[in-house]
Specification:
This protein is an alpha/beta fold. It has 13 helices and 19 strands. It has 3 domains: 135 residues, 3-Layer(aba) Sandwich (Rossmann fold), CATH 3.40.50; 248 residues, pyruvate-formate lyase- activating enzyme, CATH 3.80.30; 56 residues, Nucleic acid-binding proteins (OB fold (Dihydrolipoamide Acetyltransferase, E2P)).
Amino acid sequence: MPRVYLKTYGCQMNERDTEQVARDLTARGYLLAESERDADIILINTCSVRDMAEQKALGKMGMMSRLRQNKPEMLFGFLGCMAQSRGAELVRDMAHVDLVVGTQKFHRVADHVDVLWKKKLQLRENLMDDARFSIVDVDEEPGSQDTIRDHTLSERQVTAFVSIMQGCDMHCTFCIVPSTRGSERSRPIASIVDEVTKLTAQGVREVTLLGQIVNQYGRHEFPKVGGHSPFVQLLRALHEIPALRRIRFTSPHPIGFRADLIECYAALPKLMPHVHLPLQSGSDPILRAMHRGYTAEKFIRLTESIRAARPDVALTTDIICGFPGETEDDHAATLDLIRRVHFDNAFIFKYSPRRDTPAATMTAQLPDDVKEQRNSEVLDLINTQARERSERLVGQRVEILCEGPSKTNPDRLMGRSPGNKIVLIEGDTRHIGEIFDVQIERSTGFTLYGTPAVL
């Protein structure tokens, strides 16, 4: 059978989508290749959030075109967000690309690969004319939110991503996601509970719920019950699964963080005390221009409410530097808010214009050197805070779920604290999948090192 190499750029949702594609292909007998040089079929799952992510995917595909010199029947395809955004132009502009599949069609990839691979073999055997044949499938498909539900777990895998919804209706002015992922569509609670129950039967102890605006789950489809939003209803239902030990979710939106969700951090022990809460800017004028729907002061009050419900919570965030029209005062306001909140970590981005977004056509686009300088200043401040908050844990006992060998040092084991900090320990395989306390001995700022307190 042909061997398929899958490459993923972007967020956890993209990783989850790729996992579904891999499962569908292997279920049909395709083999997974460890590198592009071993492959007959190469599929790149793409991201469009930043221009750099698109350029990486395009560059990677361009370099891999040379592999066809020795394997003329090779099949190349783009999947995901950039595929959705650019569609047929990818086939037009890159002569070796055979397949383009959008974000609502991941469950169709195996069908399309079957068709294209058959055509490739016919061409190789001279059973058809030497003409280009390609498939572009980027149409909307009702019910696509229910198709990302199957898993292929590695040996002793104890964590898993679970996709609970697709799309976004927030329409932030800088963001291309509503046009690449479509409108919000959510899966039924019962379907998600069934998926997670099956995962725990296979050894999974922690799940991370995925959605573009994950805490807005179900707001268009399902009613509130007992004053609880559909997302809170889902959290409470998952909390009742006996073998499930930890629940996480990403990424929420501040305006979807209502009182019932905040209360969950005090009421549900399995809900881990880590909140990734995208800020984007600490300036009210920039937040309005971004169409974020909250003020800096409301954001600060929200973080205070979360910390009041769960004092040990770790807060992380996203920040965009150099949004169109951002002044020095706006930038200073962002730095001031960061100092007031004191984050555990952050993803920091220089503003990148995205096609078909309002911000891309705004006046007062900032030069790259200004964006770079502001990005550096925010990064330095966040790194200082991250080190300080990690160093507070030195000398303390921290509970971890041991996930397996460290990716950077297979002689060590890696786990995560409830606050989602990476903890490395000396140990053996009997620790994998177990939850236990670790005595933290030192910190490098972003990684903790410790010794199991109970062997």
